[in-house]
């Protein structure tokens, strides 16, 4: 035991996890800023355009569960790097298409290839579950709330930053050069992560040949409190048998899945319905929605801890419904911006409220429930945009507004589920919110 080499600190673990999540999660908005241009070039219908902008969310949501479970076996660094490298492969494929085919050679026949590269680029989105586990293993239980809030809050802001910056760079450099620059930054960021990222002490000891029990004892002397249970997939299977878990999955499908969907759909909404240019659409999307929803999540956790997750969720889903009604009705830019901000607040606070309820309702399988809620709930980011595109196919330009009926239905559904939980389960105050 004296010859083992332990490196890193909780602060280094948090910084590298947040940095890796930030660069990977930006893939959420890969196609959002250029959706109208790609749609015109390939002659896509509204449904296919919705599928295209949602492509990164398909892999980004479904890979969360298996990679999060794998982290308990090998630590966070290797799964992190694999997902980031897959994102680099996807971005490289997109770069080749932009260099050789865009715009005149890009046709409907290339849609499957563009979709595939979007899915690969979205693999980095799935690092969320890995970084959450890494942060939890590095920090003692009495400091995890703050650490996880920093990790999720800063990491979740990257789509907003990308939505704000990418259209500006496109205006200055053009689409192809902008995405080549994005690829370069992703490669550099991955190399930086690979150099500085360090697994928690327990995993370092296991990789140096120390047996599990001895590694646990040594890691405890270094301050590590949480350790993998060794049955991550069993925890997921146990959670899947609990009905309350599926209610939470559905609620997170609305709040976080809905957030992901609008993050990529709103630029097209602002451009097509309100006549904004690509730069203005990016700024409005970032400020009134993406960044607002990401930053409100941390105080949303505090609100959930203070008044309870169920009433917080009920009010939040109500805000989503009210904002949706306004967006269906209005054609005024200012009103639409205010309604979009209302949606952002509702979704951001609801995200925190749902995760505050996970340990309360599923204490016997918190890890598995968190994986299912986070992974399957995020699938809404892939499922919702094609539905919004269907309204455009049916109603034309007005369909960009009418499509928010989808969010009205989802918001009401979320209110019903949260209300049922509130009525049927005894309150247990004091459960910390995990953002």
UniProtKB/TrEMBL annotation:
InterPro entries: MFS (IPR011701), MFS_dom (IPR020846), MFS_trans_sf (IPR036259), NO3_transporter (IPR044772). One of its GO terms (molecular function) is nitrate transmembrane transporter activity. Pfam families: MFS_1. Its main location: membrane. It is a multi-pass membrane protein. It is found in: Membrane. Keywords: Membrane, Nitrate assimilation, Transmembrane, Transmembrane helix. Belongs to the major facilitator superfamily. Nitrate/nitrite porter (TC 2.A.1.8) family. One of its GO terms (biological process) is nitrate assimilation. Residues 13-426 form the Major facilitator superfamily (MFS) profile domain. The chain crosses the membrane at residues 12-34, 46-66, 78-102, 108-128, 148-173, 179-198, 245-266, 278-300, 312-330, 336-358, 365-388, 400-418. This is MFS transporter. GO terms for cellular component: membrane.
């Amino acid at each position: 035991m004296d010859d083992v080499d332990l490196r890193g600190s909780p602060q280094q673990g948090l910084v590298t996890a947040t940095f890796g999540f930030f660069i990977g999660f930006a893939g959420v908005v890969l196609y959002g800023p250029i959706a109208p241009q790609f749609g015109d070039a390939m002659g896509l219908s509204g449904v296919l355009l919705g599928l295209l902008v949602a492509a990164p969310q398909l892999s980004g949501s479904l890979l969360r569960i298996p990679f999060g479970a794998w982290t308990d076996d090998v630590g966070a660094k290797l799964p992190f790097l694999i997902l980031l490298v897959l994102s680099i492969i996807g971005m490289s494929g997109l770069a080749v298409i932009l260099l050789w085919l865009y715009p005149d050679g890009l046709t409907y026949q290339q849609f499957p290839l563009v979709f595939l590269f979007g899915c690969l680029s979205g693999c980095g989105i799935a690092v969320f579950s890995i970084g959450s586990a890494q942060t939890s293993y590095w920090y003692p239980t009495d400091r995890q709330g703050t650490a996880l809030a920093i990790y999720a809050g800063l990491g979740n802001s990257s789509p907003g930053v990308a939505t704000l910056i990418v259209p500006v760079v496109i205006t200055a450099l053009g689409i192809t050069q902008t995405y080549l620059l994005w690829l370069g930054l992703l490669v550099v960021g991955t190399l930086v992560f690979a150099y500085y990222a360090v697994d928690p002490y327990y995993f370092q000891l296991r990789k140096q040949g120390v047996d599990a029990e001895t590694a646990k004892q040594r890691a405890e002397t270094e301050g590590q409190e949480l350790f993998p249970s060794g049955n991550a997939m069993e925890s997921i299977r146990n959670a899947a048998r609990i009905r309350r878990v599926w209610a939470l999955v559905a609620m997170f499908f609305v709040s976080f899945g809905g957030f992901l969907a609008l993050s990529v759909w709103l630029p097209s909404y602002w451009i097509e319905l309100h006549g904004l240019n690509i730069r203005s659409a990016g700024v409005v999307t970032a400020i009134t929605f993406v960044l607002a929803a990401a930053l409100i999540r941390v105080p949303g956790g505090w609100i959930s801890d203070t008044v309870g997750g169920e009433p917080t969720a009920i009010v939040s889903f109500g805000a989503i419904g009210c904002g949706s009604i306004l967006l269906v009705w209005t054609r005024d830019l200012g009103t639409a911006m205010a309604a979009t901000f209302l949606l952002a607040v509702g979704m951001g606070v609801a995200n925190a409220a749902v995760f505050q309820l996970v340990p309360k309702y599923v204490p016997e399988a918190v890890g598995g429930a968190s994986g299912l809620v986070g992974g399957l709930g995020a699938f809404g980011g892939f499922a919702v945009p094609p539905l919004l595109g269907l309204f455009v196919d049916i109603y034309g330009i007005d369909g960009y507004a009418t499509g928010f009926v989808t969010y009205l239905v989802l918001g009401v559904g979320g209110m019903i589920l949260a209300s049922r939980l509130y009525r049927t389960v005894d309150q247990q105050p004091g459960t910390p919110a995990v953002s």
